[in-house]
Amino acid sequence: MVALIDYKIGNLQSVINAIEKVGQKAILVREPQELKKYEKAILPGVGAFGDAMKFLNQNGMSDAIREFADEGKMLLGICLGMQLLFDKSSEFGSNKGLGLIEGEVIEFDKKRFKTPLKVPHMGWNSFDIRQESLLLKGLKSGTYLYFVHSFHAVCDEKYIAASTKYGYDFPSVVQKGSIYGFQPHPEKSHENGLKILKNFMES
């Protein structure tokens, strides 16, 4: 079983359904002390970075997540959940993140686009694998997944397992030890997305 961290952000049921499709079970965890019972956890989410961190800080879940990761347990951040893994975000001002992976989250820089593109980055796009990752087992560069986001991570190359191009390259899969981040939505990415969740759950 995996702990699905519930902080009132996003459609948790779609993630639960996707996990059940790969033959696994997710348990909603709302209280920090409950997280200690699990060896794997998923931090999902859509919405604003600052609002998410405010909720996590208020109920003590942010500290519980840091302790969970420090113990070497497996943590997967999805979409906003991935962005929360970093030090900070510039969304609606400067907001501190969980600080589990060195880096920051910034808005897509339209000035770097060679051709006009809409923000948010929404729809199907592919990734290029940069390094081996348990999340990407059985997948290859050129695999398409579903994205919905206006901000993206900026971090050291050593943390980037895969990148995606939208005007320019940005990290779409990151990892540091037992901490993983996935910018697209696996629960909306059909078989390829289910493969990601299956890899995480069975590792």
Question: How would you characterize the overall build of this protein?
Answer:
The chain is α/β, with parallel strands linked by helices and 203 residues long. The protein has a single domain, classed as 3-Layer(aba) Sandwich (Rossmann fold). The chain contains five helices and 14 strands. The strands form three sheets. The chain has an eight-stranded mixed beta sheet. It is globular. The two termini are 12 Å apart. The model has no long low-confidence stretch (mean pLDDT 95).
- The CATH class, by name, is Alpha Beta
Main β-sheet, spatial strand arrangement? 2-1-3-4-14-13-12-9
Largest sheet: 8 strands, mixed
* 3D shape: globular
Amount of beta strand: 25-35%
Q: For the terminal residues, how far apart are their CA atoms?
A: 12 Å
Rounded to an integer in angstroms, the radius of gyration calculated over CA atoms is: 16 Å
* Residue-averaged pLDDT: 95
Topology pattern, helix = H, strand = E: EHEEHHEHEEEEEEEEEEH
Helix content: 10-25%
Which homologous superfamily in CATH is the superfamily? Answer: Class I glutamine amidotransferase (GATase) domain
Unreliable stretches: none
Helix-and-strand structural type: alpha/beta
Q: What's the number of structural domains?
A: 1
Tally of contiguous helical segments:
5
How many beta-strand segments?
14
CATH third-level topology: Rossmann fold
How does CATH name the architecture?
Answer: 3-Layer(aba) Sandwich
